[in-house]
Amino acid sequence: METISALDDIPVVDLSNPNEDLVARAVVKASEEWGIFHVVNHWIPPELIGQLKEVGTEFFQLPESEKKALASETKRLQEHGRKVLSDEGRLLSAVSRSRCEVRTPRHTDLSGITFLIANQVYGLQAFKDNNWFEVKYDDSRIVVIIGDQVHRMNNGKYKRAEHRATLDKEKTRISWPVFVDPNLDHVVRPLPELISGDDNAPKFKPYTYRDYKFHIWNRLPLD
What we know:
Blueprint: E1 4-5, E2 12-14, H1 20-33, E3 36-40, H2 46-60, H3 64-73, H4 79-98, E4 103-107, E5 113-118, E6 124-128, E7 131-134, E8 141-146, H5 148-153, E9 163-166, E10 175-180, E11 187-188, E12 207-208, H6 209-217
Parallel strand pairs: 1-7, 2-3
Antiparallel strand pairs: 3-8, 4-9, 5-8, 5-10, 6-7, 6-9, 11-12
Helix pairs in contact: 3-4
């Protein structure tokens, strides 16, 4: 039987600490041990986050036809963003029809880093040491998730966080992720300054981000 651990185990990095070296060390430690952490005191006004949630909630409450129409009119939506909106919409529709739990399965993000804000319906879970850890939400926190590209650039030093999302049977969980991606033609490889000697040889082959996504989406071998 799988274990869901406490809410307060995910590392928290306080950006208001005047000692920048300590902040950097905290980010490195969280990235190496978890691949996911919270940042607090990030100077994004809570009013702005509140507006994001309000507008986002209004969007997901629209009929499916109106959501698709709005998405098709917005050319600035990136390819991955379109997929997320589409998948999220289908999941929410499924929940409203069936009232049963729906999950996005265990995965890592293809991006470099993901910044995530969510409403206060828990559902994001991070996997570490054979346990699932529930990720806490409140308006003071932003969740930072290390993705595949930073993991590869660091030659595996920073973990790419395995995570999944659950949807409450009675409450609607909505999240607003920002995926920080390389340019599609950028070649992602372990950084030269992190590779020295045979004991730290490159663990990953270089790929353009476009080719990497093609391999993942088509389930082709990488390294």
